[in-house]
Amino acid sequence: MPDPILKITGLEKSFGALKATSGVTLDLFPGEIHALIGPNGAGKSTLIKQIVGEIPQDAGTIAFEGQAIDHLDAADRARIGLARTFQVSQIAPELSALKNVMLAVEARQGRVFRFFRPVSRDLALTDAAMAFLYDAGLGERATMRAADLSHGERRQLEFAMALAMKPRVFLMDEPMAGLSPDGSKRMTAFLSDLRRTAPILLVEHDMEAVFALADRISVLVYGRVIATGTVAEIRANPDVRTAYLGDEAA
Amino acid sequence: MTRESLLNIAVLAGFLAVAIIASLSGQPYLVTLATKAVILGLAGVGLNLALGYGGLVSFGHAAFFGIGGYAAGILASAAQNYEPLMTWPMELAGTTSMPIIWATAVIAAGLIALPIGALSLRTGGVHFIMITLAFAQMIYYFAISWPAYGGEDGLSIYVRNSLGALDTMDPLTFFLIAFALLLLVLALTFMATRARFGLALAMARQNPLRLTSMGVRPFRVRLAAFVLSAMAVALAGALYADLNRFVSPSMLSWQISGELIVLVILGGVGRPLGPVIGAAIFVLLEAWLGHLTDYWQLPLGLVLLLVVLFARGGVIGLLTGRNANA
């Protein structure tokens, strides 16, 4: 078995008396989709925020490609290859779709403090950004203001930006949220291919999508991982069924 | 060409025409008025980089306006009084050369803006407004209480500083100098906002969380905008001291910070020429209404109220429609 690209060990996080993350140990291997499921308030988003460095953990360690990254801030972690998509699409509404992605390209190149050359004439930047927009299926909308995009298109824009970072790992917080059944199907097909680009840690409520996509599933309840396994193992696990899945998975 | 670019060219040509016609028809007062508008417009263009493009509502930019003014005043008065500027660690003489004064003003303001920005940008929203105000007030009271450079009375510059062989005391010549610097700074900010930096600054304003998740710290981008903005405002301050041939702590007062914000909002936040149009309106209202009544700021307040309520893009937004720089 190859080494995990992301390895989380004994992670703890409390907000006052509330234990949001409790001894979470989790890993992500190259080429896989590892889905993280759990009821509302189980601490899934809090876990993602700790992995990307948005909030610090109280204890435990996060290792990326064998190196602890606990001392790195969110911007550093993004630069070494952790790309995140948000539950609510995070975009610059007044900029065009293309410029949103161009900024992701320029950030990856690490050349932000350039004051003279207009970006619109920087073909290396516009062409690269355009290619990522087409990869995410949004090429036709390049010149539209991001604010004028539909909900589903903003989600695609998020993915174009994440792709432009050429990440080593994707961390996705509910990419299916708010999509139409049709949109969910297309997103499922897209994510299924995406695991070959980089492995995905996927927080998702849409069980149909999770069961279709996940190579492994971890179940989080009250901040604690109560089970990790393949789709079949998780479906058969009695603890998981009582705690979370209920009749839905029967 | 968009309507906004046409309007921009018309405004700049209008400034030039007013100054030249006023000069030819023997109305130096009007030329001086136009010069004042150009200089305040330049300061507004500087503030706009932080406030408009960066979304950083600084209520302390009078500090940089005043620092520019004092750079001009201190260097010039030392030269005119044949006193050394300092004797330790080395003897340094004053100067009346405009380019050296401008460079000193810009560099001094940049160096002071760096720590002020670094501390202020750790906060946001109302706290940012208050902490920038607090820093400016500290500098204001320092200028009042320090007797070496005139204290409360300020410093006089007997003759305008020099630029090559030009007669800077001629109103039209001085107008053209200020106008050229305005064009230069406009061109630089126009470029910067369209370059890679401008894209990052737009994201820092619209969605700092996304910028971070791309691997860029919004703090650094904002700090760069804050410092550059301060430098442009200081250049305007140096010109303003030369225009009045006088600098006093009033240039550092919070009223100036407020007036600069008013200019930017009046003309159009985040529009390249917004502050210039705002400055023209401000100076015209002050000249015409100030002639009639001491309470000229009341109608100004009404105009501002109308702009904020009904024309979010300022006067430029009103004339050209919504923001087109997507």
TrEMBL record, chain A:
Pfam families: ABC_tran (PF00005), BCA_ABC_TP_C (PF12399). It comes from the Bacteria. SUPFAM superfamilies: P-loop containing nucleoside triphosphate hydrolases. Transmembrane segments: none annotated. Keywords: ATP-binding, Nucleotide-binding, Transport. One of its GO terms (cellular component) is plasma membrane. The keyword Ribosomal protein does not apply. Gene3D superfamilies: P-loop containing nucleotide triphosphate hydrolases (3.40.50.300). GO terms for molecular function: ATP binding; ATP hydrolysis activity. PROSITE patterns: ABC_TRANSPORTER_2. SMART domains: AAA. Residues 6-247 form the ABC transporter domain. InterPro entries: AAA+_ATPase, ABC_AA/LPS_Transport, ABC_transporter-like_ATP-bd, BCA_ABC_TP_C, P-loop_NTPase. PANTHER family: ABC TRANSPORTER ATP-BINDING PROTEIN, CONSERVED COMPONENT OF ABC TRANSPORTER FOR NATURAL AMINO ACIDS-RELATED. This is Branched-chain amino acid transport system ATP-binding protein. It comes from Amaricoccus macauensis.
UniProtKB/TrEMBL annotation, chain B:
It is found in: Cell membrane. GO terms for molecular function: branched-chain amino acid transmembrane transporter activity. The chain crosses the membrane at residues 7-24, 30-50, 62-80, 100-121, 128-149, 172-193, 219-240, 273-290, 296-319. GO terms for cellular component: plasma membrane. CDD domains: TM_PBP1_LivM_like (cd06581). The keyword Membrane applies. Keywords: Cell membrane, Membrane, Transmembrane, Transmembrane helix. The keyword tRNA-binding does not apply. It comes from the Bacteria. It is a multi-pass membrane protein. This is Branched-chain amino acid transport system permease protein. The lineage of its organism: Bacteria, Pseudomonadati, Pseudomonadota, Alphaproteobacteria, Rhodobacterales.
